[in-house]
Every structure is written in C-alpha cells, then in structure tokens.
Design goal:
about 35% helix; alpha/beta; Dihydrodipicolinate Reductase, domain 2; elongated; 14 helices
C-alpha cells in the first residue's frame, strides 16, 4: 500500500478538526482509497496548543520550511488564512514540488492567478474545496460534476455570518446591532466581523466560483460589493409586505455583455428556495445547459464541515500521487474564455427604495417626478406614519425594472433635497429563475 505523508501548517479551529477526524478515521481512509495517509509534521507558532491536542512533540515545528522544503512530505496543507505569509508558504511548497491543499479564499481570490501559474509551471496540484461553502462540495461539483456543461449562472448565500444576522432580524424582530452581538456570542461571527458584514468574504468566494464557471481570471476589484450594514429591521418588515425576504447574495452569471458578477443585499421572492435558507447555513444555486437547475445546501463553515472539505482534498491528492497522475487536477478550469466583466451601472433590475423624508405635502410627488425624469417608474408605494417624536417618515417603494446608472443619478439628485433626511436604502431584486 502506498504511503503518502502530509504536513499541516496552522493549528487553529480547522487544523485541529482535520487532525481529530484523521485520527478517528485513518483506517476508513485506507480501506476506501487504498492509500495510507500519515500526518508527518504540524507547524504552528503556538506548538503548546498542538502538543495539547495529543500530537507527538517530535512532529511539531514553528518553521513552515520544515514542511514546505522537507523531502519526506508529499502534501502541504495551509490553514493559517490571510494573504501573508500564506502566499509565500504556498509558493515555497510549489517550488519544492509539493501538492497543496488550502482553505484560503482570500488568498486565492486576490493572488490565485500567481499561485495557479506557479503550480502549472512546476507540475503540481492546488486543491481548494474548503475555500467556498464549508462542507458543501461545490468546487468538485463545478470542476468535475458539471464538466460536460456550460454553466450559465451560479449564485447563492455563501456567508453564514451575514445570513445568521439577517435571519435573526427577520425571525426575532431585532435590529442589526443586536443580531450581530448574538452572532458573536454564539461563535458565528468574529470579534471583528468586517469581512463578513461588508460583503468582502462573499466577494472572495464568488470570485473563485466565477473563475471556475467561466474559465478566466476575474479580479476582486471587478466585483461590485455591498454589505448588510445599512439594512435595518424595518427594511426586512417592508420587504415582507411586498412579498420578499432579504438575503446577502453572491451572483455570477453570463449576460449578453459578458459576466455579471456582484455581491449585495438582495430581495428574493418568498417562495424561492434560497429564501428558506436560515441561520449559518449556505446554499449555492447552479444553472447549466445540460443538468439544468441544481441547489447545493449545507453547513458553510465550522470546524468539522470545513475539515470534511480539507480531508476530501487530501485524499484526492493522495490518490493522484499514488497513481502518478499529479499536475493540474486542482487548478484547471472548465473552459477558456475572455469575457468582459459587466459594469454594475448597466444592471437592469427592480429595486426596493426606502426614503426618510419630512412629513409634508408634495414630498412623494417630487420624489416621483425625479425618478420619472430618469426613466424610473414606480410599481408600488407604502408610506408609514411617524411617531410623535419623529420629524421624518419612511417612504417605501418598489420600482419597475430600471437601469442602475439611472437610479444612481436620481438618488444623487435627491441627496440635495432639503426634505430627504438620510441616505436612501436600496435593495435590488433577483428573480431570474431560481427553483421558485
């Protein structure tokens, strides 16, 4: 039986989870795959914690090069996260001919082109199933399961923290700050949750999925990204009255002008399957020419779901090493193309808009006039009364389909009006297909 040795860099939540599952299921891995996997070495700055995890002290190190440059290591697993020094560690492993497994979505989104180019040059594989969707095997599905398909669209809920916050606001009637605190107390949000709530984490993930789907480099800077910080509980209430729920969606799809790729709070019809994805769960919707519409649902983060994805990559890499077929399995794309990335300003969609305006005659008429002057028509309106202590009232409306460029011009003009007291909240609709 072929023995494959693995070096693990990063003894955090996921790293310790990988080791724990490995110890418990080593015999199963051998029986299923005919390869003996050995956790040869573990690197972490905090080797005390690693030692407390039951590892042999002889296999512990604080130096990454003891793994990346070691002749007795076949696979390097990077689980430290962040851009630096993770990038340098992975590139060093590639230069030394190691197969690489990583869960690092930020690194692959920001620096993936350099990493994949280096892997091609050195004839090694880079595996990254755990970078998107936690325990959901979406990367393998796109790269292998849909290999005969032309992928038209991929979109979904791929940040569990944001989804937990929006779910709590909807179910419990709490405001954004209270929902965020609750997520942090339950371990679903980081102490600094910026990347989750401002949309950056979801943008990194859709960047990776978009590259796989459309076979080309997409820069993170090309992805329109908007977070959920500006969503208030009243927006979720009003959206429900219009027949929608609010989700942070990451969207990538083919459009006549090229690739439409973006992240922002989105209105989904209440009968859409993604509308029922609650809490920290993720769901990714894929639409292809042959298989049609498919939905992948599961735990998008966490110690063991992510460890499941990492271990699946380790096993896949080990099988290829045992068969002598290494090189390009983890980095290839489904096709090669050079489609332009669409400008957000050319997006056409219906929108929810909430204005905070002075309660006086003629205000709604002036808002309608300005929207109309920019070719934006109103589908429906609701105006709520104000409490005694409030000077402004919410005016909430749904537009007919409008161009983003025109909407921005109209809102910019309204910003200068004395009776508009706060920046309007805009939430775009997504109704295109979606297993409704």
């Amino acid at each position: 039986m072929k023995t494959v040795s693995v070096g693990l860099i990063g003894w955090g939540t996921v790293g310790s989870g990988v080791a724990a599952v490995w110890k418990r299921k080593a015999a199963l891995f051998e029986d299923r795959n005919g390869v003996r996997l050995v956790l040869k070495r573990v690197c972490d700055l905090d080797i005390v914690s690693a030692r407390d995890g039951g590892l042999d002290p002889a296999c512990l190190t604080t130096r990454a090069e003891d793994i990346t440059a070691a002749a007795d290591i076949d696979i390097v697993v990077e689980l430290i996260g962040g851009i630096h020094p993770a990038k340098e560690i992975i590139l060093d492993a590639i230069r030394h001919g190691k197969q690489v497994v990583t869960a690092n979505k930020a690194l692959l989104a920001e620096e993936g082109q350099e990493i994949f180019s280096a892997a091609r040059a050195h004839g090694v594989d880079v595996y990254f199933e755990a970078s998107v969707g936690g325990g959901i095997p979406i990367i393998k599905a796109l790269r292998e399961g849909f290999a005969a398909n032309r992928i038209e669209r991929v979109y979904g809920i791929i940040n569990g923290t944001a989804n937990y916050i929006l779910s709590a606001m909807a179910a419990q009637g709490c405001d954004f700050a209270a929902a965020l605190r609750q997520a942090q107390e339950r371990g679903f949000a980081e102490r600094d949750p910026a990347l989750d709530i401002n949309g950056s984490d979801a943008a990194h993930k859709i960047c990776i999925l978009g590259r796989l789907c459309f076979g080309q480099h997409i820069a993170c800077s090309q992805i329109y990204t908007e977070g959920i910080q500006g969503i208030e509980h009243q927006d979720i209430q009003y959206a429900a009255e219009f027949g929608y729920c609010v989700k942070l969606l990451a969207i990538a799809k083919r459009a006549p002008q090229g690739i439409d790729i973006r992240v922002h709070p989105t209105l989904l019809p209440q009968d859409h399957l993604l509308a029922h994805v609650q809490g920290v769960y993720n769901a990714v919707f894929v639409d292809t020419d042959l298989a049609g519409e498919t939905l992948f649902y599961g735990q998008g983060a966490g110690k063991y779901p992510t460890a499941s994805a990492v271990l699946s990559d380790i096993i896949a890499a080990a099988e290829r090493i045992a068969s002598g077929r290494t090189g390009m399995a983890g980095v290839n794309t489904l096709e090669s193309s050079s489609l332009p990335v669409c400008s957000m300003e050319e997006l056409h969609t219906r929108c929810y808009i909430r204005f905070s305006a002075v309660d006086e005659p003629g205000v709604l008429a002036e808002i309608a006039r300005i929207l109309g002057s920019h070719t934006i028509s109103i589908h429906s309106v609701m105006q709520k009364g104000r409490a005694d202590h409030e000077h402004a009232v919410p005016i909430v409306m749904m537009t007919h389909t409008a161009r983003e460029h025109d909407l921005r011009l109209a809102l910019s003009e309204m910003d200068r009006l004395p009776f508009i007291k706060a920046r309007p909240v805009v939430i775009r609709e997504e109704r295109d297909g979606g297993l409704s």
